[in-house]
Amino acid sequence: MRTRFTWIVLAGWSLAFAGCRAATPAPGIAPGEAEAVRAWGLQQGWKELPAPADAEAAFKPSADDRARGWIAFTPPRGRLGPIDAMPTAAAASRGLSELAFPGAIESLCVGVHALKDTAGVDVEVSSLAGPNGSAIHGSAVQVREVIYAPLSRHTTRSRKNEFVMHPLWLIEYPAAAALAAGRSRVFWLNVRVPSGTKAGVYRGTITLHGGGTTQERPIELDVQPFALDGELCSWAPVTAGNGFDLELYRQLAEHYMTGLSWWWGTWGLRVTREGDRASFDPADLDMLNAATKSAGMRGPWILMLGNMIRGHLERRLGGYYAQRKEPPLFDVKLTPIRERKGGVKPDGLPAVGDLSDPEISRRYIEVIRALADRAKTQGYPQIIIIPYDEPTKYLSKWNAHWADLIRKEVPQIKVLNTPQGVYDWAKALMPHSDLMVVRGGDDPIYKLAIDEGRGIIGYGRLTADMTFDQARHAMGLRFAEQQPDVIFFWSLNYGHADERTPFNDLRGGDSVVRHQFAWPPSAPGRRWIETVAWEGQREGAKDYLLTLMIRQMLADDESPTAKAVRAPFEQFNREAARDAGDLQARRVRLVAWYRQLTGR
């Protein structure tokens, strides 16, 4: 059984057919749009930076290849090559193979490089035959195209007017403009391995058709005799209020992102006055609770009640919020933060609560207590509060006050502090913390937190300009030594991109693309548009879950096998946290250890 995907070129655009379903590419998310912005940048004097050259030897096409006009190749996922480079000899010869786990989604890549102008390509994916008559049906394979987009390489401090064509989106209906000679198209395959799939090697083929000729690539999935335990860790993106829906939550859960973190005002917690008490309207958070549970998310929720210049909860209680004056809910005192340096303008409106006013503390804690009570009665996930995100020296005394008050009055809600990797800052925040942020690798704050008896939560970044391997390591083995059971990270769609060029900052002079890893769907009810970095995050999560599963196995095991594994495993974790290389080889080693410990 084969699943066939056909791309038909129509005046430089395309319709994509998979069975009987057709879809039109979203504006700005097509090769034609990306190429148009690339041309615009060149006209404006921008310099296109060449992608790093591959050290491997380039493929030398045969006479038959040139007559066909194109070649198939298997690019490495971790470092997709330039869109205009000849594939390496190794990529042109190897098949598609991957370790796989029952119930997981596995990713593979295949590409087409045009030796002469080519109008379109058909792709067929067979079912994968396994041991004893078992199979993974071809319908379990999703094919998407990798869209390269021009991303600028300037920063707000140093604008060099340089850009690179970066492998960015994965679109489920590849937009097949005619493929010019010397250009490549890369297709991303996701295989949904059913839960309960028998262990063993599953083999099939992907067949590419073009110009009346075909090329095949073998597919091989080595399904392991165990499933990954996604309950051991939760990844929680920092969200920014840009159109959340059930379909997005489902996709997050598919990537082990079962938690959420957000700033005040971007979701829920609308403060209200109930007689003489402060409370909140629970409708939004009740809905969020129901939707995320339906999607398979379990928390935690990390809620930031302020940022590095203002306290949003205090401002709402006192009548100032979102840069406008509103009727105050209570007669409480606020104060501005005027001492600001570093080129940031002072906050002209009252920014935080006046700590000399006992009313602000009373109202503040009433809201937190109402949130805790509602969480208990309605079964919300665990709630973690950050009083101020990045509590600079201007807010240090306020952060200490609110953190200590929450820990004393509402101890069921834990306080997390964010020292931004600064050791002295973390040391000052530690007495006012239940949990402390650690950043993986060599972060010295980890030892400080452990020595002080504090819990830890990992923090990192997942941004669209990362490569697959960068995202995989940043969201996975970077935390192998520290072993937090929650990792939250920046960010999901912070800021608003130019609708004309939603993928880049050539025109806007902003770095908005770096603050997102997904784009809103092309139509209501459709899946969000994923990126190569998002796929890297999922593979990083798998790597990390394997380390947690092995550690769990070793915890109380004093067998000769466990003793033989323990020391090299700990050394592995130290090295993997600091070195982003050889990620696939590291996964192979983790799988071997787990099977050794379980005897499977």
Describe the secondary structure blueprint for this structure.
Layout: E1 2-10, E2 13-18, E3 21-23, H1 31-43, E4 47-48, H2 63-68, E5 70-73, H3 89-93, E6 96-100, E7 105-114, E8 122-126, E9 128-129, E10 135-136, E11 141-152, E12 162-171, E13 184-192, E14 200-210, E15 213-223, E16 234-239, H4 246-254, E17 260-263, E18 270-274, E19 277-281, H5 283-294, E20 301-304, H6 312-318, E21 320-321, E22 324-325, E23 334-335, E24 352-353, H7 358-378, E25 383-386, H8 396-409, E26 414-417, H9 423-429, E27 435-438, H10 445-451, E28 455-461, H11 468-474, E29 486-492, E30 518-519, E31 529-531, H12 532-554, H13 560-578, H14 583-598
Parallel strand pairs: 4-12, 6-15, 16-17, 16-29, 17-20, 20-25, 25-26, 26-27, 27-28, 28-29
Antiparallel strand pairs: 1-2, 1-8, 2-3, 5-7, 7-13, 8-14, 9-10, 11-12, 11-13, 12-31, 14-15, 18-19, 21-22, 23-24, 30-31
Give a written overview of the molecule.
There is one protein chain. Strands 4, 5, 7, 11, 12, 13, 30 and 31 form an 8-stranded mixed sheet that branches. An 8-stranded parallel β-barrel has the order 16-17-20-25-26-27-28-29. A 7-stranded mixed sheet has the order 3-2-1-8-14-15-6, with no helix packed on it. The chain contains 14 helices and 31 strands. The protein is an alpha/beta fold and 600 residues long. A hairpin with a 2-residue loop joins strand 18 and strand 19. About 4% of the residues have low confidence. It is globular.
Q: What key phrases describe this protein's structure?
A:
31 strands; globular; alpha/beta; 8-stranded parallel barrel; 8-stranded mixed β-sheet; single chain; about 600 residues
